[in-house]
Design a protein that fits this description.
Blueprint lengths: L13 E2 L49 E12 L3 E15 L4 H5 L7 E3 L5 E3 L11 H11 L8 E5 L2 E2 L7 E7 L5 E9 L5 E6 L13 E4 L13 E8 L3 E10 L2 E14 L2 H10 L3 H18 L15 E3 L3
Length: about 325
């Protein structure tokens, strides 16, 4: 989440003057404002009336595997302003039942589940690396007093040519009545560590679309950000578009804005080829860009923070 995400043409790093207005990462008139890792996208194009998805229903249930295409944006506000935006792609899978497993063979030879392919998804890249993924998510929800007995969706990055570094993935956990009751933000850093933030209403009620969800920052991600302050998360899921936004703030206010968003397409061989050939080294590029932007921040003399020990608990429960 800090400088972990990538894209195309970085903006020039320049000092932020005290009288400079804080930039607002806004891509459309209906996009809500926010602060840390902006994972948002532009508003959907006008369409005919669609069913009410108000953030609670699994998107496009008919397509248990989906590819998304859209921008990844990142803006640091201080002590220097540093921003970049790149084209990206991601994958969304329905993890409960056999939905994704039954759909995957139709994507061969371009994509495979838990097998070698130009694009692939492996269960061991998520959760504890051993427990079946839907079971793992439901157990984490149950530990938090939440009932997630419905659809479980995972928004993440596919492996490209066998390699993947996944800065952040999102698990959307639903009840059997399709109400979204929890989002698990799964964060990986470049030191091989992983931590999860479980976001839910205090009483376990349905999460509204666009609702601000908060969590205290406890996990080291970037050496140019201290492990302090907190995150504000915001998600919007439609049948044709996914938006995720994370804003990192400290005692001085907004610090980092990051967003991930994209148009969703039912996975087929054509969209798999688009994800592969459009950016054949996409996930390798993620790690390269992380280090490139770290070098730019170092050259700009942004304060360097040594990595602390990871938190003892694997899951941090979000705050109201």
């Amino acid at each position: 989440m800090q400088a972990m995400l990538w894209p195309g043409r970085p903006e020039q790093t320049a000092p932020l003057r005290p009288d400079d207005p804080l930039p607002i990462m806004q891509t459309g008139p209906t996009e809500p404002a926010g602060c840390e890792s902006v994972m948002l996208m532009s508003s959907p194009k006008p369409q005919a009336a669609q069913p009410d998805l108000s953030g609670s229903s699994p998107p496009s249930v008919e397509a248990p595997i989906q590819f998304g295409f859209g921008p990844i944006r990142h803006t640091r506000l201080r002590p220097v302003r540093h921003a970049f935006s790149y084209a990206g792609s991601f994958i969304r899978l329905r993890l409960d039942g056999d939905h994704a497993r039954q759909h995957a063979p139709s994507l061969a030879p371009w994509f495979a589940l838990n097998a070698a392919a130009p694009l692939s998804f492996h269960d061991r890249d998520h959760g504890d690396g051993q427990t079946p993924l839907a079971q793992w998510a439901r157990e984490r929800c149950a530990e938090a007093g939440l009932k997630a007995d419905g659809a479980i969706w995972l928004h993440t990055f596919a492996r490209h040519l066998g390699y993947a570094f996944k800065p952040v993935s999102f698990w959307f956990c639903h009840r059997s009545d399709n109400a979204l009751v929890a989002v698990i933000a799964e964060v990986n850093n470049t030191f091989g560590e992983r931590h999860c933030y479980l976001l839910a209403e205090p009483d376990g009620s349905r999460l509204r679309e666009g609702r601000d969800l908060h969590a205290r920052k406890v996990f080291h991600v970037s050496p140019f950000c201290a492990v302090e302050g907190g995150y504000t998360f915001r998600f919007m899921n439609r049948a044709d578009r996914a938006i995720a936004r994370i804003d990192h703030h400290d005692e001085h206010g907004p610090l980092i804005l990051t967003s991930l968003s994209g148009e969703l397409h039912a996975a087929d061989r054509r969209t798999a080829r688009r994800a592969l050939f459009g950016q054949p080294l996409f996930t390798l590029g993620v790690i390269v860009r992380i280090h490139w932007h770290a070098l730019l921040l170092w050259r700009a003399r942004v304060r360097f923070h040594r990595k602390p020990d990871p938190p003892r608990a694997f899951i941090t429960r979000g705050q109201p």
